[in-house]
Structures
1.
Amino acid sequence: MSRPVVPCLLAVFFLACISIAAFGVLNPHIEPPQCDSCHKKIPTEEEAAAGHYFLLKDTIDDTCHICHEKTCCKPGSLHGINHPSNIKDWDRKYFRKPKTLPLHNGYITCNTCHLHRMPGGNQYKMVRIVKIDGKKIDWTDLCTDCHIGY
Ligand code: HEC
Ligand code: HEC
Ligand code: HEC
Ligand code: HEC
C-alpha cells in the first residue's frame, strides 16, 4: 500500500487514473503525505483561522485543478452532473447556506463537498457526507444541506 501507483496499474480500465499516473503524479490524498502538492507553506493555526492556507494557486478550486483538469472536474463539467463550484452568489430561495458543509469566504469549493485527505474506514471518494450500505451509496444528505426541496 505504500506505493500509490500500484492500484492504478491494477485498474487498467480506469483511464483517468492512468492518465494521471502518466504525468508522474502520485496521489496526494494518501500516505505518504505530500503537503507540497497543494501548499507552498503549511499554515499555522492562526494563519488558517484567518483563511491563509498558502495554496499553490489563488483559490482552492484552482489548486485542485492543477491535477484534476486532466481527468474529471474541469470547471463546468463536474462529475457527469454539472455541479457548480467556486461560486459565491446564488438564489437563496432554492439553495440555502449549508448548515454542515464548509464554505470558504462564502464560496462553494471542491473542499465544501470533499475532504482532501483519505479518511480511514468506510468512505466514498472523500465525499464529506455519505451513507454507505453495502453497494448502495447515498449522498442525499450532502445535497440537502444546500438544496431546498431536493
Ligand atoms: C490535495 C491538496 C492538499 C494536500 C495534499 C494537503 N493540503 Fe492542507 N489544505 C488544503 C486545502 C484546500 C486547505 C484549506 C481548506 C481546509 O481547511 O481544509 C488546507 C488547509 C490546511 C491547514 C489549515 C487547517 C485546516 O486543517 O483546515 C493545515 C494546517 C494544512 N492544510 C496542513 C497540511 C499538511 C501538514 C499536509 C501534508 C501532510 C497537507 N495540508 C496536505 C489542501 C491540501
Ligand atoms: C456539490 C458537491 C461537490 C462539489 C462542489 C465537488 N464535488 Fe467532486 N464529487 C462529489 C460527489 C457527490 C462525487 C461522487 C460522484 C460519483 O461517484 O458519481 C464526487 C466525485 C469526485 C471525484 C471522483 C471522480 C471519479 O470519477 O471517481 C473527483 C476527482 C472529484 N469529485 C473532484 C472534485 C473537484 C476537483 C472539485 C472542485 C472543482 C469537486 N470535486 C467539487 C461532490 C462534489
Ligand atoms: C498533485 C495532484 C493532485 C492535486 C493537487 C489534487 N489531487 Fe485529487 N487526486 C489526485 C490523484 C493522483 C488521485 C487518484 C487518481 C484518481 O482517482 O483520479 C486523486 C483522487 C481524488 C479524488 C477521488 C478519490 C477516490 O476515492 O476516488 C477526489 C475526490 C479528489 N482527488 C479531490 C481533490 C480535491 C478536492 C483537491 C483539492 C483540494 C485535489 N483532489 C487535489 C491528484 C491530485
Ligand atoms: C454547498 C451547497 C451545495 C451542495 C452540497 C450541493 N449543491 Fe447542487 N447546487 C448548489 C447551488 C448554489 C446551485 C446553483 C448554482 C447557480 O445558481 O449557478 C446548485 C445547482 C445544482 C444543479 C444544477 C441544476 C439546478 O438545480 O440549478 C444540480 C443538478 C445540482 N446542484 C445537484 C446537486 C447534487 C446531486 C448534490 C449532492 C451530490 C448537490 N447538488 C449538492 C449548491 C449545492
Note: Residues 81, 83-84, 87, 90-91, 95, 98, 101, 108, 112-113, 139, 142-143, 145-147 surround heme C (ligand 4) (CB under 6 Å).
2.
Amino acid sequence: MTKRSVKRIPAPNRGKRSGYRPPVCIFCTAPPDSLEHILPVWTQEIIPPLPEATFSEYGRADGHYIAEDLTESLVSNRERGFDVAHLRVGVVSTDCNTGWMSQLEDAAKPVLSSLIRGEPRLLSARDQMTISTWMTLRAMVSEMLWPDRACTTQPDRHQFRAQQQPFQNSKVWLAYYPGDRNAKAVHRYATAHTATKGAPRQVVAHCITLRIGALVAIYLYSVVPALNTFYFEPPLAAFVSRIFPLPVDRLDWPEAVNPIPDVQIFNGVRKAFKEANEAAQQAALAGVRRRRT
Ligand SMILES: [Zn+2]
C-alpha cells in the first residue's frame, strides 16, 4: 500500500482525545473505568460495522461521518469519513454502564430497532418518552467527543441518572429517512456565549443529530430560553415529528416518507439551529438596549 492510498483521518477518540478521562464518571462519583460507544453496540446487530481500519473518503452518501460545527467565534468544523460505530469515550463507570444505562438501552431497543430498520410502527406516548430519554442519554455521551465544549453539566447528568427522563429545556424530534439503510452519522452544532469579558466561553446550547439506518433523531438542549424559537423550515418541517415535549398519544410511524436527501436533513437542522441562535442574540441585544434607555 502506498502512502497516497492511505487516507489518514484521525478519529475523535484517537490522538488528542484518546487520553481524555474525566476525574469521575460523568453520571456519578465512581472512577470512569468503562468505555461507552457513541452508538450503542446493539445497533451493530442491525447494521454491521465496517472494519475499524476502514476510512472511506468523506461522503455523505456513505453516511459514515461525524461533524461538529460550533457557531459564534468558537468555530470548529470537522467532518470525517469513517464508521462511527467504533467511536467510544471513556467517561463512565462500570456500575453506570452495566447498570442503569444498560437497562435504559434494553428498554429502548425494541422500539428503536424497528425505527432503525425503517419498519412502520405505532409509537405510543410511552414509546416516545422512552426514545426521548434514550436520546438524552446518547446526547450526553456523544458530547463527550468534545469534552472541553460539553453543554450539559455534571449536576444535570446526576439528575438524569436519578430521574431518567428528558430535561425540561430539551426537545427531541424524529425523522424517517429511507435512503442508505446502513448509514450512520453523528452531527453536533453548538453555540458558546461569553458571560463576562475575559471569562471562558460557555457552551449554552447544542443540537445533536444521530442517524442510524432509517432513523434520524434530533436533540436540542439549551440554557438560552430564546432558543425555543427553534423550528424547521419546509420541506424538512413536513418530515420531522416532535416527540418531546408533549408526545402525542399515538404517532403512526413514519408519518410521511421523507424524500429529502440526507445532506438536506443535516443542513436543515444546522439552519434551524443557526437561525434560533441569531434570534436569541438579537433578543439579548434588544434587552441590553432596553436597559440602557
Ligand atoms: Zn457512574
Note: The first helix runs from residue 43 to 46.
3.
Amino acid sequence: MSTTQPPGSAHAHDELPSSTVTLIVNDQPRSARCPDRTLLVELIRDELGLFGTHAGCLNGDCGACTVNVDGRITKSCLVLAPAAEGTTITTVEGLGEPGALHPVQEAFWEKDGFQCGFCLPGQLFATIDLLDHEDAPSDDDIRGALAGNICRCTGYQKIIDSVRCAAERTARTPD
Ligand code: FES
Ligand code: FES
C-alpha cells in the first residue's frame, strides 16, 4: 500500500516549509507559526483572529486587506507572512483609543461612508494616510488617495463626503 499523502491532507500541510512569525500588532507582541506561503492577510485573520482586515481579491486591487506596516499603508494580500517578521502592524481594530473611535472612523459613521463595511479598512487607512500629508485635500486629492480601494455598495460620493468630514475633524483634533 502506498504511504504517499494526497495534496492538501493534514500530513502534507505539516510538511510544508514553515516559519514562526513574531511581530507587534496593535501594540501587542504576537507570534504564530504558519507555512511560508501564507499571506499576511491570512496570518492576521486566521492565526491572529483579527477579522476586521478583509480578504477580497487577494491580488492587490480592492484594498479590503489594508493595514499599516511600519508606518506605511500596505495591502496585506501582497505580502507573505514571513516577510512581516519583526514589523509593527496596525489593523483596523487598532485605530482610535480603547472605547473611542478614531476621528476618521467617526467621520465615516457620521456621513454614511460605508454600508457592508467590507472595503472600510482600506478607505480608513487611505484617508488617514492622506490627512497625514494634506490637511485640506481637494476632491481630486481624495479621489487619487482612495483610487486603490473598491467599494461595491456605498457609492463614492458618500465616501468623499466622509473624507472631507474627516479632514475637518482631524483639523480640530490636537496631536
Ligand atoms: S484582498 Fe488585498 S487588495 Fe484585495
Ligand atoms: S461598504 Fe460595502 S464594499 Fe464598501
Note: The mean pLDDT is 92.
